[in-house]
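User: Here's a chain of 264 residues. Predict its fold as C-alpha cells.
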Amino acid sequence: MTKSSENDREGGQLAMHTPPIVSPQAWDAARQQLLVKEKAQMRAHDALAAERRRMPWMAVEQAYAFEGPTGTASLLDLFEGRRQLIIYRAFFEPGVFGWPEHACRGCSLGADQVAHLAHLNARDTTLAYVSRAPQADIARLKARMGWEMPWYTITDSFDADFGVDQWHGHNVFFRDGARVFRTYFINSRGDEAMGSTWSYLDATPLGRQETWEDSPEGYPQSAPYKWWNWHDSYAAEASPDPKWVQVSDAGEAAFRDLDAGAKV
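Assistant: Prediction complete.
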C-alpha cells in the first residue's frame, strides 16, 4: 500500500479525487453514454424476471403454524385470501443484537424501506414478516418503529425448512385454492434491493401483471399505469378512472416520442 502525500490531504483527511468539471453539453453527452448501459441493464433485469416467472414450483406439503395478533394462523392464512405471498424472515428474538428494544439493524433498515402495502395488495400479493419473538414484543416494536406490515411469530421449523434459520431472506409462495407452492427465494445481497412495489412484484410468479411483460400464456395482465391508484383509493374490481387513463396515455406517448428522438 502506498502512502498518500501531504498534498493529498485536506484537514487531516484524504482528499477526494473527484471527476472532471465539464460543460453542460459534455455532461449531457456523458450521461447519454451511461444511459445506454443503464437501459441494457434494465432490459436484462426484465428478461431475468421473465425467466423467474418460468421457474419450477415446489409443493409445500407440511402444515406450518404461526402466531398472529388474533391467534394461531396457518401458512394459508398468511395469504389473506390473495394468490401470492412474500414472507421475509426478520431477526427479532432473544440473542439478536438490540433485543428486546430493537430487531436486527439490517432487518430494521429493510423494514423502513417497505412501500405502502396497498399497491402490492392491488396485485393480489401479500407481504408478511415473520420472527421468533412473541407477539407482544412484535406489537411493541411495530408501534415504536411505525411499521404496518403483518408480522407473525414462527412456532415450528418454517425458518429452517426455507433457508432462513441462520440468515434473513424473502420466500415467495403461490396459492392455488388450498394448495401452496414455493416459487422463489431471495437472500443475502438480493435482500438489499427489496422494498419497492416493483422489486416485490418482480420476485413473484405473476410479476407486475402488465401487458408489456414476457409471461407464460394465460397469466393475468392489464395495461401498464392504468391500475395505479392512490393507496387509499383501491377498490376491488374497479375499472381504471377514465381521466387517469387519458393522463397516463399522454405520458406514455411523450416518453415514446422522447425515446424515439434519442435514437435519431
